[in-house]
From TrEMBL:
Keywords: Membrane, Transmembrane, Transmembrane helix. This is Phosphatidic acid phosphatase type 2/haloperoxidase domain-containing protein. The chain crosses the membrane at residues 12-34, 40-62, 83-100, 106-126, 133-153, 159-175, 182-202. It comes from the Bacteria. Signal peptide: none annotated.
């Protein structure tokens, strides 16, 4: 198997638009809160609409009018509007969703996502193209590690898997010539920092 041929695949399955749904499903599975089906479906529906379906619809709108040209590649100029929209939708989610009243872990996970969106926008405003893929995958990896600590669960396989995934995403972005190493590093730092900043409140 030619690894280089499958590397782009990781840029799609770990696209930032999917990370919120991945994090939500992972949390419910490992915390056993999926035993409360109403809470699970309500939370997943809210997260799915605001972080996946609505952004996808807006992406196709932007694509059709020429504001963006690719699902996985975006120039510095093309990033501003999607990042701002992501920040707004995440703010709406954490501000108005009643589901998070009983799930502080997810509340801070999405608050970290909101913070990472703001930091990514600042980077774009400074003409720096931090990797959104690395922000997203590192945010998820840090969340999984934090859940392991918080719930005192031996999630060694999950942590190992997500660390390997981080490596594949980074390799994918380099292989596709989407980013320089420093852009990947800064993206990783933003993703990790966005989660670690809230550990004090829930760990």
């Amino acid at each position: 198997m030619d690894l280089k041929k499958i590397l782009p695949f990781f840029s799609y399955i770990y696209h930032p638009i999917f990370i919120s749904v991945y994090g939500t499903i992972f949390y419910f599975l490992v915390s056993k809160m999926y035993t409360y089906p109403t809470l699970f479906y309500m939370t997943l529906l809210q997260v799915g609409i605001l972080t996946l379906l609505l952004p996808l619809s807006l992406y196709y709108l932007f694509f059709s009018i020429g504001l963006v040209n690719s699902f996985t590649e975006a120039s510095l100029k093309e990033r501003k509007i999607p990042i701002i929209i992501q920040a707004i939708l995440l703010f709406i989610l954490i501000k108005f969703s009643s589901s998070f009243d009983n799930i502080p872990e997810l509340y801070y996970f999405f608050f970290g996502g909101f913070l990472s969106s703001l930091l990514a926008f600042i980077a774009v405003s400074l003409k720096f193209k931090a990797s959104l893929h690395m922000i997203a995958i590192c945010l998820l990896a840090t969340f999984i590690y934090a859940i392991s600590l918080h719930l005192q669960l031996p999630l060694k396989n999950s942590i190992a898997f997500i660390i390997v995934s981080v490596g594949f995403v980074a390799s994918s972005r380099l292989h596709m010539k989407s980013h320089t190493p420093i852009e990947l590093i800064i993206g990783s730092f933003i993703g990790i920092l966005s989660q670690v900043s809230f550990w004090y409140f829930w760990l």
